[in-house]
Every structure is written in structure tokens, then in C-alpha cells.
């Protein structure tokens, strides 16, 4: 069980780091803002 947790942790850190490196967070935030504005009827 501990090896499985470690593998999931390392994989998560890798993908989070990759997303930060490629500035994926800006796309995610832009999409989230658009969805929120559409939900409340402004966008």
C-alpha cells in the first residue's frame, strides 16, 4: 500500500509541476471564470 501511495504522490507532483511549467493554470482559470460568468448570466 505504501508503494502505491508513493507512486500516486510522485505522479501528482510531476503533473502539477508540468502544468505550472507550461502555464496551464492560466487556461484553467480562464475557463473557470468563463463558466462562472455564464452560470450567473453575465457572460
Task: Describe this structure as you would to a colleague.
The termini are far apart. The chain has 43 residues and is an all-alpha fold. The protein has one domain. Helix content is 84%, strand content 0%. The protein is built from 2 helices and no strands. The longest helix is centred in the N-terminal third of the chain and has 20 residues, at 2-21.
What portion of the residues fall into strands of 2 or more residues? under 5%
Number of strands: 0
Report the radius of gyration as a whole number of Å: 16 Å
Counted up, domains total: 1
Biggest sheet details = none
Low-confidence stretches: none
Query: Which class do the helix and strand fractions yield?
Result: mainly alpha
Helix content: over 70%
Work out the helix count. 2
Order of helices and strands: HH
Bulk shape? elongated
Whole-number average pLDDT? 91
Which terms would index this structure?
43 residues, mainly alpha, 2 helices, 84% helix, elongated
Outline of this structure?
The protein is an all-alpha fold. It has 2 helices and no strands.
Layout of strands and helices, then pairs:
Layout: H1 2-21, H2 24-39
